[in-house]
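Protein modeling request. Please complete all fields; requests missing the sequence field cannot be processed.
Requester role: graduate student
Desired output: 3D structure, token encoding
Chains: 1
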Amino acid sequence: MLTRIDLRGRRDADPRALLPRATLDVAAAVEQVRPVVEAVRDRGEQAVREATKRFDGVEPEHLRVPPGALATALEQLDPAVRAALEEATRRARTVSTAQLREDEVVRVVEGATVTERWVPVGRVGLYVPGGRVAYPSSVVMNVVPALVAGVESLAVASPPQADGLPHPVVLAACALLGVDEVWAVGGAQAVAMFAYGIDGCPPVDVITGPGNVYVAAAKRLVQGRCGIDSEAGPTEIGILPHDTAVSAYVAADLVAQAEHDPLAACLLVTPSVELLDAVDVELGKQVPATRHRERVETALAGQSAHVLVDDLDHGLQVVDAWAAEHLEVLTADAPERARRVRNAGAVFIGNHTPVSLGDYLAGSNHVLPTGGTARFSAGLSTQSFLKRMSLVQYSPEALAEVAPHVSALGGSEDLVAHVEAVQVRVR
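Delivered output (427 residues):
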């Protein structure tokens, strides 16, 4: 079912050039969404309404969800789903709180200090997708770290359904977390609304949350006017298993990831031909039985593969180069080997830690870097909503002590006014 790629004896090959991955032409999408973003910038709410009607096929009576709709959604929420959301929130808050950074005072020399202060951004726009399925879990993943960071103003946007409101479970999750500013707006128009503001929705400082290629393109267009978390692409999983891995578990995790999107990428990297054969047998059983069979088959037959490597060290080299959004390590020495991973959004260790746990209740965040960007970026966290500010304070004596060095460096750059700004204080 999956293509097999044999990298045995090819340790010097660059895996990035040989392994499949869904490609998104964000640059092309930028030109498609540019008119939408610019229209919202120039014409505000009216342009948002026009884009919503065009792309979502609905005309919400209110772009901002009325308080009553939020309260009703929470009242009607399935008790089991509510309990799961409450537990997911508790676990996410536990991990997010551990990510908080305290101000740190550094004494450079006597009388000279630099205080590294962590300050929350003032307002954030949190995007929750609403395409094929609803994602109340994304509400938790976006909102909890922002709240823990101390952000004072939060707004959530999610595409309207046929009734003109976001999915009721998304609304219920917002109500459960105390978010009362929710907008029935999706796609590029939601990103533009957050970046430029409309009546009742002031511009935000940071936009976070996953979305499709048009959301990613709109984020690229507004970056600089506000901050963004990332240009998230299709979801992906890498699995590094060996003899201790259970083939049924491995197959189930491939199917689960492929269920997200026909563009989902699934990579199984192992030195064991026997395990690959066993996983193929399991896929033959599990794929026909899954609800979203067509979506799964498309993803597995497309940008997914079995990869044979010389040994586990070679496998680690391959998965590090691929830099998966999610990486499972299913080996006898999984905890130790997982610590050797350099590039992954999140690493899931051992047979009883599936990626789907991370999607909901692990406590970690599921908004993670995709498309190989885990080589240089990290997932959403409390720190995504904090900015570091340096508070610098020198006494007269400390300034006098360093003044000759300022004179030397300022003079070398021919910035004499810089030198004088110090000398006028120490003469």
